[in-house]
Structure to design on (183 residues):
């Protein structure tokens, strides 16, 4: 399982480099499923381009990015063609309710089982952790995004931490069974 949980996406270019290194294909061949669902207000939708730009600036080609707003059922067989699922910030409660409504839990699991990268930004990170009921259960801890002071960088043992704090400059990286915090 490959998971990157952030507060602000690729603001820290080291996180972008780690993402590129986790890809199984060259970045210019990578295919992304861009999920802006958590940006559920008119005001927040004005920022959708900022997060799309994260993927474009990392080197993913525009024609390799599909947007899915959890507004219709998704063909589960198509999910394995993607290398990354990018979940935008916004309302984690709204995002989880749409995942439940569209029965998207199973496609996410299948995607991860096929070596895809789950990339969460703020709300996209919150739903991966124990922050909310019916979460994705990708990490057995709660996450505090946008923390003023983050948890110490390095490999972490979840048994020792019920809450992991990440600043806007940090990310939680799950690569297989190893979980670490990077800056």
């Amino acid at each position: 399982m490959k998971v990157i949980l952030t507060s602000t996406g690729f603001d820290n270019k080291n996180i972008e480099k780690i993402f590129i290194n986790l890809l199984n294909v060259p970045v210019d061949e990578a295919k992304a499923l861009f999920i802006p669902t958590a940006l559920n207000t008119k005001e927040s939708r004005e920022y959708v381009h900022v997060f799309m730009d994260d993927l474009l600036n990392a080197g993913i080609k525009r024609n390799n990015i599909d947007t899915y707003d959890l507004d219709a059922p998704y063909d589960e067989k198509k999910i394995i063609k993607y290398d990354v699922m990018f979940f935008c910030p916004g309302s984690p409660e709204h995002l989880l309710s749409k995942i439940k409504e569209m029965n998207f839990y199973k496609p996410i699991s299948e995607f991860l089982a096929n070596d895809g990268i789950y990339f969460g930004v703020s709300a996209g990170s919150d739903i991966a952790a124990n922050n909310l009921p019916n979460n994705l259960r990708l990490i057995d801890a709660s996450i505090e995004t946008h923390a003023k002071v983050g948890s110490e960088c390095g490999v972490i043992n979840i048994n020792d931490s019920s809450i992991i704090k990440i600043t806007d400059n940090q990310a939680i990286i799950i690569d297989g069974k190893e979980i670490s915090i990077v800056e």
